Amino acid sequence: MGLLAITLFAQNPFRQYPAWEQYTDPPPADYQVPAEWTFARLMYPTTRQQIDWQSEWRRGWDWREGNTNWTIDYPRSDRHLSMAVRRLSRIDGKSVEQVINLDDDDVYNYPWLYAVETGHWELTDAQVAKFREYLLRGGFFMCDDFHGADEWDVFVETMKKVFPERQIVDLDGKDAIFHSVFDLDDRYQVPGAQYLQTHSICEKCATARFPGYGGDTPHWRGIYDDKGRIMVAMCHNMDLGDSWEHADDPAYPERFSALGIRIGVNYIVYSMTH
After folding, report:
1. Using CA atoms, how far apart are residues 64 and 146, in angstroms rounded to an integer?
2. Which of 30, 192, 243, 256 is the most buried (most CB within 10 A)?
3. Which residues are registered as beta bridge partners of 233?
4. Measured between alpha carbons, how far is residue 22 from residues 16, 45, 82, 90, 128 in Å?
5. DSSP assignment, residue 46?
6. How high is the mean pLDDT in each 10-residue block of the chain (274 residues)?
7. Local structure of 166: helix, strand or coil
8. Is the peptide bond before 13 cis (omega within 30 degrees of 0)?
9. pTM given for the model
């Protein structure tokens, strides 16, 4: 794997940022113990486009200091998935996450990178170039928790800057990413925590008032490299981050966390073996 040849960069120290949902969970007791895999979460600037209430609410906040879209579900979802990786695989997972800023080189230390709410991101030109280099060197990027046509368009606008020459395609159910640990032929839409109040599976459902939302159907999409390896895996119209975050909440249905965690584990193992 190409990334193994470039892991000589000094790793940034662990830091816990202020979170959108105001989680102040202290790090686990073993948070300083090194491991072979770490949940790497991408921080990013929020889009300047006005697409929903989230776009306006924290406009002007410094994304480098947390409290913006990239911190949604953070850090509970990260640590819950890390715990699942320890229990469900033979990967030696670190108990805490690492936040990644594409303005430095720390990203090259992590084979698997995750971002939430990418329907609200907008990478700078320098970040786009760094991101492209990371992926072409062997990195893997998973994004999640973005819904409907408007957020999809915002996501694609930046992703097309990263790979203008590559197509976004629907992933074949036979692809190894769905069978690296668990066989995930029976996949279904995983809702966010709004399900507990609305009982709606989709977050941005198409309605008479908002016919263009189109968040009713889950999509597992990706971008392949020249050798057929998935570099970018997109979970659109679903909220796996919430399924990890609320895996210990008895009110959140177990079947959603069960699938969400299995998808996460599969994607992580795939990223380290392909």
Report:
1. 21
2. 243
3. 142, 222
4. 12, 19, 20, 32, 29
5. B
6. 51 94 90 96 90 63 92 97 96 97 98 96 97 98 95 96 98 97 97 92 73 81 97 97 97 97 98 94
7. coil
8. no
9. 0.93
Which residues, 6 or more positions from 25, have their beta carbon under 8 angstroms from its beta carbon? 75, 76, 79
Handedness of CA 108, 230, 167, 81 (dihedral sign): negative
Alpha helix locations (H) across 141-229?
148-162, 195-198
Contact 39, 82 (CB under 8 A): yes
The architecture (CATH level 2) of 2-273 comes to 3-Layer(aba) Sandwich (3.40)
- For residue 200, the one-letter residue type is S
Is the Cβ–Cβ distance between 121 and 51 less than 8 Å?
Answer: no
Query: What does the alpha-carbon distance between residue 92 and residue 30 come to, in Å, rounded to a whole number?
Result: 13
Q: Could you tell me the two tokens for 89?
A: 């695989």
Strand 169-170 vs strand 98-100: parallel, antiparallel, or unpaired?
A: unpaired
Of 170, 178, 158, 160, give the one whose Cα is nearest residue 236: 170
Q: Which of 128, 87, 102, 91 is nearest to 40 (CA)?
A: 102
Contact yes or no for 190/240 (Cβ under 8 A): yes
